[in-house]
From TrEMBL:
Record-annotated Enoyl reductase (ER) domain positions: 12-330
GO molecular-function terms, A-Z: oxidoreductase activity; zinc ion binding
Protein name: NADP-dependent oxidoreductase
Residues spanning the membrane: none
Species in which this protein is naturally found: Montanilutibacter psychrotolerans
Domain of life: Bacteria
Length: 333
């Protein structure tokens, strides 16, 4: 089958379009004919080798972390899906590979596609939807009336997280650029800080939760907007010891994570704030709950642009410019 492949880790390198073996279908797997995929910053970080210590992939590697498509075959022990089902998923991190014609995934990672979305729209949801869910519901336990700051509100995670936080009854602030103010307001943001005009740390205060997806400076400044007992949750690092232990990393890597996060953890403690790093995990059951929200009109995908499968490298270059509103999608079939 045709696929876009990482042969060796190199920053900014092009993916190779080539032939790869058909996926093996295990007893609990569904084999999906891919109709659409979408791009995430995670794809570029994997390609660049930023995660090679904690995600030791064997190269060559098919890239891609989001999929929407049709089930063509199921393993002998699969009970939840059948051939012909339209599904979407974020494959488990050890079985990624959605920039391809087909993929096999464990049935627990897969959910039925929202009936009111196209394949391209559905492919824009899994990774960012699950990230927002696991930050706001699992980790932050966000409640009605609480205040949450979601950085980069016009990005893939931000556009979904704003809508989910509003559904949960929170008061939502976000940061974005001037040209995206109208977009984030349309998604439900109550307070919008145009970072080109204002410093969020000087205009926001008393927040319960911050979802950070940006760099070190933004991460540290976010401490100033949280009240004592607040939660600073970062999806862009630095990873902490708890993450290393959850991921089953060895003692040496646990110490590396401890050192990487020691600065922000110390500053957070001084402010009476809890810091944690979250690396989202595949979860078909949570994705099914997201499907229900989408079908009821609570949440909608935001797709910036769609590229044909053959233009996957051009799509990667476009995403790297950092101007996409929502998700960048690849139409595979």
């Amino acid at each position: 089958m045709k696929a876009f492949i990482v042969d060796r880790y190199k920053r900014g390198s092009a993916l190779r379009l080539g032939e790869m073996p058909e996926p093996d279908v295990r007893d609990h797997d569904v084999l999906v004919e891919i109709h659409a995929s979408s791009l995430n910053q995670l794809d570029a970080k994997i390609r660049d080798g930023e995660f090679k210590l904690i995600l030791p992939y064997r190269l060559p590697l098919i890239l891609g972390n989001d999929v929407a498509g049709v089930v063509v075959r199921v393993g002998s022990k699969v009970r939840g899906f059948k051939p012909g089902d339209e599904v979407y998923a974020r494959p488990s991190q050890d079985r990624i590979g959605t920039f391809a014609e087909r993929i096999a995934m464990h049935e627990d990672d897969v959910a039925l596609k929202p009936a009111n979305l196209s394949m391209e729209e559905a492919a824009a949801i899994p990774l960012v939807g699950l990230t927002a869910w696991q930050v706001l519901i699992d980790r932050a336990q966000l409640k009605k009336g609480q205040k949450v700051l979601i950085h980069a509100g016009s990005g893939g995670v931000g556009t979904f997280a704003i809508q989910l936080a509003k559904h949960l009854g929170a008061m939502v602030a976000t940061t974005t650029s001037t040209e995206n103010v109208a977009l984030v307001k349309s998604l439900g943001a109550d307070v919008v800080v145009d970072y080109k005009q204002e410093d969020f740390a000087k205009v926001l205060s008393g927040y319960d939760v911050v979802l950070n997806s940006l760099g070190k400076d933004t991460l540290e400044k976010s401490l100033a907007v949280l009240k004592p007992g607040g939660k600073l949750i970062s999806i862009s690092g630095p990873p902490d010891v708890a993450f290393a232990k959850e991921g089953g990393l060895n003692w040496m890597l646990q110490q590396v994570m401890r050192l990487l996060s020691v600065g922000i953890r110390k500053k957070a403690r001084q402010h009476g704030i809890g810091y944690s790093f979250l690396f989202m995990r595949a979860n078909g059951a949570q994705l099914s709950q997201i499907t229900a929200l989408i079908e009821s009109g609570v949440v909608r995908p935001v797709v910036d642009r769609s590229f044909p499968f053959g233009a996957t490298n051009e799509a990667m270059d476009y995403l790297a410019k950092g101007r996409a509103k929502g998700k960048v999608v690849i139409k595979v079939r």
